[in-house]
Automatic annotation (TrEMBL):
Belongs to the UDP-glycosyltransferase family. The keyword Metal-binding does not apply. InterPro entries: UDP_glucos_trans. It comes from Salix purpurea (Purple osier willow). Keywords: Glycosyltransferase, Transferase. This is GLYCOSYLTRANSFERASE.
């Protein structure tokens, strides 16, 4: 689609981490389903994670493809095959991985010169993409993968530095200029914000912010009705040219679409669905911390104990360690699996739209996300962690009693029913937002129209 019959062609270039690739690929599929030609740029070892779902989309007649560029692992001092954050195991490797991602600029520019798309949707962690796109007169959109609320909260903290005006780490402060009287503590802010350090990662964030301000705008995986005050704040107060086109996951119409993104599950999806089908509606808790977070064995043991004490049925996604083994005997309470027979299983792919949540922030902007879920949307409860710890939790931050309490609170009683009802309503609103006439559908049309006008 586009003016004068020209089909708009957009490149999607996600950061090389599952949490970034999955929504970017979903967005590419969604745009393709509406007549846009889309190409996903990635590296050879990351392409197989979503090649199946892309082929299925192509088979439906949509114009979507994958273009690979070589990942400069050796040039950055990384071992060959280290093309995804999952393979980055130390701080030293993190520094080298950041260097490698900056070296992607040259091969990326060669593809731009050869194909010359109408627009690039590049991840926030590729700040050089704004300059690369400018060389060829191509608009660059930034993709963060988070909400308007988190983007606004992070920017208000950066601009006004309220954490420097409190006397202790756990003294609450109101985030200045942010709607809703949102309170945080210094300990809930990312370590790189509260410690005011200048390392490789903070330099990357700084250049990302500068790059964003020079870009064509921001594309957000959200919808207006979810967070109207923050969508308005993002555009009108912070002055971002932003288009809310989400939730992009709605492009996945069936279980195969959902399960064909990211890493392979360790158990058969049909086995899991059969187990779920045998349970009552709204009776199963799904526990998942994404593709990067890891916990100490002692914390996993507290989780298991709390889950058992809650008496609820559950699906628990447990990440394999770097040796590819779960080593369950190190952290599962003795006899846990036998006692949980029929009550619990572990699995990787369950859809969760329109469901209430228990929040357990660990790193990145996750404490902002918690405030959105618990204070603004009121569709979840906080499990009770007080401190931003980063990707690797190496000690117990929560005892089993707190976990039991949060699980019971979200599953049983009047409060649970109210949160479930609100979450269900938002789920329905989300589906309407992406349909013809919906707010996200309208933002999508406005974006494509603008890109068509921008074409020389």
């Amino acid at each position: 689609m586009g003016s004068l019959g020209h089909q708009v062609h957009i490149f999607f270039f996600p950061f090389l981490a599952h949490g970034h690739m999955i929504p970017s690929v979903d967005m590419a599929k969604l745009f393709a389903s509406r007549g846009v030609k889309t190409t996903i740029i990635t590296t050879p070892l990351n392409a197989p994670f979503f090649s199946k779902t892309i082929q299925k989309t192509k088979d439906l007649g949509f114009d979507i493809d994958i273009q690979t560029i070589k990942f400069p692992a050796a040039e950055a001092g990384l071992p060959e095959g280290c093309e995804n954050t999952e393979a980055v195991l130390t701080n030293e490797m993190t520094k080298k991985f950041i260097v490698a991602t900056t070296l992607l600029q040259e091969p990326f520019e060669k593809v731009l010169q050869e194909i010359h798309p109408d627009c690039i949707v590049a991840d926030m962690f590729f700040p050089w993409a704004t300059d690369a796109a400018a060389k060829f007169g191509i608009p660059r959109l930034v993709f963060h993968g988070t909400s308007n609320f988190a983007l606004c909260a992070g920017e208000c903290v950066r601009l006004y530095e309220p954490h420097k005006k409190v006397s202790s780490d756990f003294e609450p402060f109101v985030v200045p200029s942010l709607p809703g009287d949102i309170k945080l503590t210094r300990k809930q802010l990312p370590g790189y914000v509260r410690e005011d350090v200048e390392d490789d990662f903070t330099k990357l964030l700084k250049t990302s912010k500068e790059s964003e301000l020079r870009s064509f705008g921001v594309v957000v995986n959200s919808f207006y009705e979810l967070e109207p005050a923050y969508a308005d704040h993002h555009r009108k107060v912070l002055g971002r040219r932003a288009w809310n086109v989400g939730p992009v996951s709605v492009c996945n119409r069936d279980i195969e679409d959902k399960s064909g993104r990211g890493k392979e599950a360790s158990i058969d999806q049909h086995e899991c669905l059969k187990w779920l089908d045998s349970k009552k509606l709204n009776s199963v808790v799904y526990i998942c911390f994404g593709s990067m977070a890891s916990f100490a064995a002692s914390q996993l043991k507290e989780m298991a104990t709390g889950l058992e004490a809650s008496g609820q049925q559950f699906i628990w996604v447990v990440r394999r360690n770097k040796n590819g083994k779960e080593d369950m005997e190190d952290w599962l309470p003795e006899g846990f699996e036998e006692r949980m027979e029929g009550k619990g299983t572990d699995y990787k792919r369950v859809g969760t739209p329109g469901k209430p949540m228990i929040t357990w922030p660990l790193f990145a902007e996750q404490f902002y996300n918690e405030k959105l879920v618990t204070d603004v949307l009121r569709t979840g409860v906080a499990v009770g962690v007080k401190e931003w710890v980063g990707v690797h939790g190496d000690h117990v931050t929560l005892k089993s009693e707190a976990i039991e309490k949060a699980v019971t609170r979200i599953m049983v009683g009047v409060e649970a029913d109210e949160k479930r009802s609100r979450a269900r309503e938002l789920g329905e609103t989300a589906r309407k937002a992406v349909e013809k006439g919906g707010s996200s559908f309208s933002d999508f049309n406005a974006l494509i129209e603008e890109l068509s006008r921008h074409r020389p």
